[in-house]
Amino acid sequence: MYLRKITLILIISIIASFSIRTFGTVFPQVFKNVLVVKATVLINAIFILSHLSFWLFFYQEYISLKKPSLKKICVLAIIGSFAVSMIYMNKIPFVLGLKVQLPLFFLNPYYDAFVPVISSSLHLIFFLALAKNLDMTEKARLRNPIRSIIIGNSIYICLHLIVLINFIVTHRFEWLEHMSRVVAVGTVPVIISAVLFMLYFYYQFYRFLDSGENIKRVPA
Fold this sequence. Notes:
Elements: H1 2-26, H2 34-66, H3 71-89, H4 92-96, H5 104-107, H6 109-131, H7 136-170, H8 181-186, H9 188-209
Helix pairs in contact: 1-2, 1-9, 2-3, 3-6, 6-7, 7-9
């Protein structure tokens, strides 16, 4: 089952991506090295692609079979993941030394400012709906992990709102790590807590899939 494998890959890529980004926020001088910058871009790309892949297989192997009533909202969550992935992927040509450029729509600062908020909100809505649609077996294993990722998503929405408000006020787009040192370093513990809440869900979901209570395909 591909969902279990991609969940494990996602867990590893989340740890790698946010570890290097957190280290770079606290010690920004490391990003003066071009090789470090390129490696970070590639790691982030692997993370966002594994995240998008997770949602695709999650829809195919879990939602479609077990929760068909959630298919529409899951599709919206997938669209949100794809939209965010474009923010990360527009840096890949730089790493590979290519002159390929994405459509200007994806390079617009308004896109960078608004899409993460919208995407995280769609994910939050999905998990709130999923929490209400668990059967008795799933509740025992997934109720707390789903609550955990709801908290993580809620924290991320707040962080994205800081970026969005800063953009609206200053008319200049900046990620948190590019803001003042007080904001950049001060939000590190918050980001770490959000990531840990989300990792708890993915880890427990991976264990759920590996437990014998996992999803089996229904006969055609």
